[in-house]
Amino acid sequence: MGPVLRSLARFDRVLAKAEASVLIAMVVAMTAIVLAQVVYRYLLARPLHWSEELARYLFVWISILGAAVGVQRRGHFGMDFFFKMIAAGKRRFLSFVIYLLMGIVIAILFVQGIFLVTKTVAQQSPAMEISMGWAYACLPVGAGLMGIHLLVIFLKEALEKPGESA
To answer: Each residue of 25-77: pLDDT tens digit?
Structure first.
């Protein structure tokens, strides 16, 4: 692996660690918000009107950012059983096709996410009265992160010599 690819792989790992840290913070925040909502609603009889909405938006962000980490760790569903039955030369081609299809889906998610953010930026959420663009921004952000991770995976596999593992 060349120095540029090594640097890119290092950046990819640092980015994934940052994403994981943000995910942990979001899960902790969501848990605290839901717990506070339960306490305020059932013990104090004074529900927090914004808590359910914020917990929902955090959950969506967690899902999309978690998918980006899943791409980096190659943790998404696959059919390894059938993949391993294919000859090594055909595996590289099949991997290329899979990465190409993933890239197409990620690009569509990115472009449509930007479109959705621009369409909803002027709308306000009902309870918190924040721009709905913030809620939908997870789509282009997550797709961008997925694209970076997929590009690194693709480059590592494309530049690796047959029989060599990254």
So the answer is: 999 999 999 999 999 999 998 989 999 999 999 999 999 999 999 999 988 77
Q: Does residue 165 lie in a domain region? A: no
Neighbours of 153 (CB within 10 A): 19
Question: Cβ contacts of residue 142 below 8 Å, gap of 6+?
Answer: 64, 65, 67, 68, 109, 113
| Helix pair 3-38, 51-72: axis angle to 10 deg | 160
Three-class DSSP category at 105: helix
What DSSP designation does 131 have? B
Distance in Å from the first CA to the final CA of the chain = 8
Q: Domain containing 99: what range?
A: 3-159
